[in-house]
Design goal:
Length: 156
């Protein structure tokens, strides 16, 4: 069944009998349940509806990000996110918990580092004021000087 036009057979038309199933059989591209519009089943099981997936709480995501950038903000955002998640049923409780924990750990490390720094600084100032920079009483500078500018600390 080639189609002919004013210039002869259509070169894009399939050859006769090609791509057509034998009589009484279905072809490759046809569904096995019948022709379109003849009551073919749809996708999924009958009675199944679309259920939207709950969204992830944005503050939970921000809590985890801010835990690495600015820990106090990460801690506050995590606490607020957990409260919102309980009320709305959104996802992201694990992210909020991780943000809280990581923020708390970074804050604890920061507090310990500040305490250690100020304890060290106080020890250094105490040794300079007493002119005992080293355990043997030597300041480490020639002629027992405390160094440029450090003599002012000793005067007070």
């Amino acid at each position: 069944m080639s189609q002919t036009g004013p210039f002869g057979p259509d070169p894009t038309a399939p050859a006769p009998g090609v791509g057509q199933p034998p009589p009484g059989q279905q072809g490759w591209g046809q569904p096995s349940w019948g022709q379109p519009g003849q009551g073919q089943p749809g996708w999924g099981h009958p009675g199944q509806g679309y259920y939207p997936v709950p969204q992830t709480n944005v503050l939970a995501i921000l809590s985890l990000v801010m835990a690495f950038v600015f820990a106090p903000a990460g801690l506050v955002l995590g606490i607020i996110a957990k409260s919102q998640i309980r009320q709305t049923g959104e996802q992201g409780e694990g992210l909020a918990t991780a943000g809280i924990v990581i923020s708390a750990v970074f804050l604890a490390i920061t507090v310990v580092a500040f305490i250690a720094f100020f304890a060290f600084a106080a020890t250094v100032v105490s040794h300079i004021q007493n002119n005992t920079g080293f355990p043997n009483g030597n300041s480490g500078f020639p002629n027992g000087n405390t160094g440029i500018g450090l003599g002012l600390l000793r005067a007070h």
